[in-house]
Amino acid sequence: MAVITSISVKKAQETRYHIFLDGEYAFSVDEEVLARFQLKKGKSISESEMQMILQEDEIRKGVHLAVQFLSYRMRSKKEIIDYLERKGVEAPFIDGILTKLSAYHYIDDAAYANAYVRTQVQTTKKGPNVIKQELQVKGIHEQQIQQSLSLYKDEQILEHAIYLGEKLVRKHQQLSERALKQKIQHHLMIKGYSEDQAVRALKEIHYQKDEDEEWEALQHHGLKAHKRYRHLEKKEYQMKLKQVLYRKGFSFEQIERFIIEVNESR
């Protein structure tokens, strides 16, 4: 058994105390640990008691770290675990830290997921699938993810998808109608909208082109291809032009019309 011969406040941290056993410095502890184990001058401590004290102090230090991490914003349980591991907290202490954080109501993945979905809906145009993936990365369980995503109402999903689609239409006026439709659908699915949600949005987005608009778009791409391949022999030149314009989504009839017109000016 060792005897506490002196206790002093740690100068750099007034909430921690140096413990001296048998006249020599032994360890330091948090003030809550000091009070919990009733550490005072003259108290005898066994080796097993010392291990319990040191373990509890490590947990207290981990709790302080986590609370500081949480002071900036809400975190998921997994985010806290990852942070503690990065800070070098040993695995045996993490469960105890999490238990205390839960008791203090600092960990609540359900509340975290709900708040996360609300924030994403209000501040971004992400689709449900992207938000779901982000919550999965943060360690939220599937059932809770589905429950939280129910906060993202169908009308909001449609509104956001339409906004993104219309923005794309303005940016890509030179695309053919078919290519523009494909681009919008692909873009929405990358942004986290399901195929059904993208199709619903497309019905509300004005991406269709009249005959003159489609012809203008074809000329834009056709003239660029013409400049690139005009040095080729006629047969190869026409084949290249057809390949380029068909991949761009234009109809065979429009492509043939363009080739006839551009050949007349060669």
TrEMBL record:
Domain RecX third three-helical, chain residue ranges per copy: 154-202, 212-259
Highest taxon above the source species: Bacteria
Record has Cytoplasm as a keyword: yes
Stored Pfam families: RecX_HTH1, RecX_HTH2, RecX_HTH3
This protein's record includes keyword Cytoplasm: yes
RecX second three-helical domain segment(s): 108-149
Keywords: Cytoplasm
Predominant localisation class: cytoplasm
HAMAP family, per database record: RecX
Record's protein name: Regulatory protein RecX
Organism of derivation: Bacillus chungangensis
Recorded name of the encoding gene: recX
